[in-house]
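Re: the multi-chain job from yesterday

Posting the exact lines I submitted so nobody has to dig through the queue logs.
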Amino acid sequence: MSMLVIGSLAFDDIETDHGKVADAPGGSALYFALAASLYAPVGILGALGDDFPAEELAFLRDRGIDIDHLEITPGGKTFRWGGCYETDMNKRTTTKLEQNVFQYFSPRLDDDLARSQYVFLGNIDPDLQLDVLDQLEGPKFIGADTIECYIADKPNRIRDVLARIDIMFLNDDEARLITGQHSIISAARDILRLGPRYAVVKKGEHGSILAMEDGLFVVPAYPIHPVIDPTGAGDSFAGAAFGYLVKESDCSPSILKRAVVHGGIAASFTVEDFGLTRLKQITAGDIEERLEFFRAVTLF
Amino acid sequence: MSMLVIGSLAFDDIETDHGKVADAPGGSALYFALAASLYAPVGILGALGDDFPAEELAFLRDRGIDIDHLEITPGGKTFRWGGCYETDMNKRTTTKLEQNVFQYFSPRLDDDLARSQYVFLGNIDPDLQLDVLDQLEGPKFIGADTIECYIADKPNRIRDVLARIDIMFLNDDEARLITGQHSIISAARDILRLGPRYAVVKKGEHGSILAMEDGLFVVPAYPIHPVIDPTGAGDSFAGAAFGYLVKESDCSPSILKRAVVHGGIAASFTVEDFGLTRLKQITAGDIEERLEFFRAVTLF
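And the result, structure tokens for all chains:
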């Protein structure tokens, strides 16, 4: 397997100003994999109960996503998450959190998975992320994501992860929390000092910043209005960025810049409807079309 | 006079996390004029007491700024403003507001000023902005700015202004307040429906959006850290943008895009120190140098 994502699969209840959905398939690994699969083959390692719809799994397989390594617990229940977003969608309240089979998830990589070249550690417990890192054999490029509760509860383990990866994806609040820096640029640069070659700080509707050893790259968000549901935007951002790197087979700064642009484009589709709806509909051609428009609205 | 700004001149007390200053010369017209003067000649119409330092006026004159139309009231006191910024510099508390001579300011344009081609209506009362518009004879391009208190107190007069100008400069909160739209993109487009050909929505550290009849232009902010004092960033943004238009003698969409980039660069200097300090130091060459860097960090 060339590209692997380890993360959550879930049923999501989501409420925004634009409506709500219940029991929508989601989770960091699914958003990542659907976006990445537009570029290159990707495998998922994660945990499911046997309540996850067969047609969802069939859809993933049809998209060329390797789901053979999913751990499906007979009689188990899939992770459930619920969130309610305010009008300012940077603010949300968690309305449901049922770990179910996810609380026993301990990723085991067989020989095939252990030799994955591009590996993305979705927002799982940093102890699990470190456990995966220990199992990898000669990876080429490793990325990770995290969430605020892990930064607050296990700051030293997050630092251990940062010391061993190539790229970290964070949102602005997470970057501030890890570094104690209010300025996003200062925070992104401080992240680099903790280990990775690259740090991407995502600012939602305000775009993102890529910090590199030899400089910065700043990019606005693709202009979308209205945003219907921001769930999974960050995971699909990372998925498209990783997919682009795998497709180009190159992790140099100039390719990373374009990868971040692709990430923003993928996220712009994700937020246009609830859950995975848009990510399931779009093709590589849709990404290209939006990329052309993005060049037009940013070139001066 | 080819380019004219009508607005406030003031003594500012400013406090941020990085320190404070008292009695610093400022006001929308000064920030605008200093930035604009890096590109083309500019005149100021505004009101002063006789307490304004002669060396400040001499400095403006040395920079080629026409200050002959300033109304200086013998024995009068100059407008005084004080502001205290939070760590999140989008939030500030007004700590002082003494209108002084500014409350009697009623701009009178002589024949020379009335024939100005490029006119910027700084954030003065919309009734005064309309009064200026009535006095102009065949202007080529008119821009305006405003502040929240006028939008709240005189929404219909703001709409009267919008119906008669070419470009409106707003920050994100102001754009939301005028249009009732939460989305910045929707708000910017709604502003266009009220009259102007162009609307610039400034998002501080997150860059800006230029809405045009035939499309959008989105641009990130020039990466500055730390921001020492955001006072006057918006006015110097407008000043540089206007200056660039005058220099190019062109108000087409492609020139407007570059004007907005120049605006962001000028603002990036302004925020690097308190008050007018940096704007007084920089040259057109400094702008060009930062423009080159900006191209490098945004090109993909």
